[in-house]
Design a protein that fits this description.
The protein is mainly β and 198 residues long. It has two domains: 7-91, E3 ubiquitin-protein ligase SopA (Pectate Lyase C-like, 3 Solenoid); 97-190, 3 Solenoid (Pectate Lyase C-like), CATH 2.160.20.80. It is 0% helix and 22% strand. The termini are far apart.
Length: 198
């Protein structure tokens, strides 16, 4: 089990560290890289992650109690069952948006959050709740969104090219200037209550 003895870490590399089930409280990480680290079922309480990278990490069922992620990026991570609404989201966003690439984000919630310009590229995002979220200019390219919920979601300018299995009601979500690709875009017609013939 890895231990953290400092309150602040700058430009540190954490490789193969095991934080499973532990509580990490009040620590600030800046420009740090986490590789092959296990955070499963850990509690991240009031931590700050500024410009940090998570690569091939397991963050499943992690509890985010008041922690912030400014310009954080996640690649090839397993991140199942996370309630992102428990993280700290500043009223004024100054940093770059979150980035998820080739991550598994199943059974998570982003209910009501500011996800403008967020990247969810080549991810598996099954049964994820985006209700009332602001996903303006978000990038969902090549992501599987089966059973994910878009309700009153702001999707203006969002990119759904090569995304699949999404169900988006065009009357209850703002999809102005959003980009979609065929044949998956046919799913947008479901909300029109029309009879499509082959």
């Amino acid at each position: 089990m890895a231990t953290l003895t400092q309150q602040e870490y700058d430009d540190e590399n954490f490789d193969d560290a095991d934080f499973a089930g532990v509580t990490i409280d009040g620590i600030r990480f800046r420009d740090c890289t986490f590789r092959h680290c296990n955070f499963s079922e850990a509690t991240l309480a009031r931590c700050r992650f500024n410009d940090c990278e998570f690569i091939d990490c397991n963050l499943s069922l992690v509890r985010l109690t008041g922690s912030s992620f400014d310009a954080a990026s996640f690649a090839d991570c397993k991140m199942v069952g996370i309630n992102w609404t428990r993280a700290h989201w500043p009223r004024v966003r100054l940093a770059k948006a979150l980035s998820f690439r080739r991550c598994v984000l199943n059974d998570s919630t982003f209910f009501g959050l500011d996800l403008r310009e967020c990247e969810l590229v080549e991810c598996r995002a099954l049964d994820v709740d985006f209700t009332d979220a602001n996903c303006t200019e978000a990038d969902f390219r090549d992501t599987d969104l089966r059973d994910s919920v878009f309700a009153r979601t702001r999707l203006a300018g969002a990119n759904f090219i090569d995304a699949c299995n999404y169900r988006i009601d065009i009357f209850t979500n703002d999809i102005k200037r959003a980009r979609f690709s065929l044949p998956e875009a046919v799913a947008l017609l479901e909300s029109l209550d029309i009879d499509l013939q082959d």
